[in-house]
Amino acid sequence: MSSIPGTNCPDLAGEYSEHPLIYRSGKELKYISGDNFDLYSSYIPFHLGERRELAANDMDLATDHFVIRQPDATQFYFVYRSEQTGSLVEYHFRSTEADFECQAGYIEFPNYTIYGMIEGRSVNFQIRNTVNRDKGGALIIQSTRGPFRGNAGKISNEFSYEFFRYPNASETRAN
User: Fold this and answer.
1) Is the pLDDT at 96 greater than 90, yes or no?
2) Three-class SS string for 73-125?
3) β-pair partners for 148
4) Three-state SS at 47
5) Scanning 51, 56, 156, 157, which has its CA 20 to 30 A from the CA of 125?
6) How many CB atoms lie within 10 A of CB 108?
7) How many CA atoms lie within 13 A of 174 on its CB side?
């Protein structure tokens, strides 16, 4: 894995295929949403980024690929082709706006947490999403879901993990 020189932020720049390899653990599959071609949209918090629609597809990007551009460790752009319009949609994420943080070799988005009661039932969970690259250049998204609060004995078996490996586009073209 490579990082941006002088930082602990991974270099995520590249073009990736939307058809990921998926590994899930900790929960029965019937409780986890089904697979589809745009799985990344459930794990990349687009609501944090600044959205911009580009009129032309000047990258010649296929509908089943997406691109990450990363000029430096403080920002990155996530670009995909809209099936409805054929234009490119770009989301700009900035660490200075708390959209993400660079950790030791991965990018972490802010945790999503809910703790409270609704109609007498406890609502108690958190979701943590991270992104990095593997040695082969594929993009890896990890999503961890589990209780936000509780005792250690209860928590140990309640977390679920999902790993999505999006191959680098050059890897899919070679096959």
Assistant:
1) yes
2) CCEEEEEEECCCCCCEEEEEEEHHHCCCEECCCCEECCCEEEEEEECCEEEEE
3) none
4) helix
5) 51
6) 15
7) 5
Q: What's at 139, amino acid-wise?
A: L
Closest CA to 144 of 111, 96, 116: 111
Q: How far, in Å, CA of 146 to CA of 62, rounded?
A: 35
Return the percent helix, strand and coil in the chain, to nearest 5: 15, 45, 40
Note the pLDDT tens digit of each residue in 33-80.
Answer: 443 334 556 788 888 999 999 876 677 888 888 999 999 999 999 998
Spatial neighbors of 99 by CB under 8 A, at least 6 apart, are 45, 48, 49, 93, 109, 110
Residue the block writes with tokens 């993009």: 139
Closest CA to 110 of 39, 13, 44: 44
**Closest to 100 measured CA to CA, from 111, 112, 91, 109:** 109
- For residues 77 and 89, the answer to whether their CB atoms sit within 8 Å is no
The pTM for the full model equals 0.81
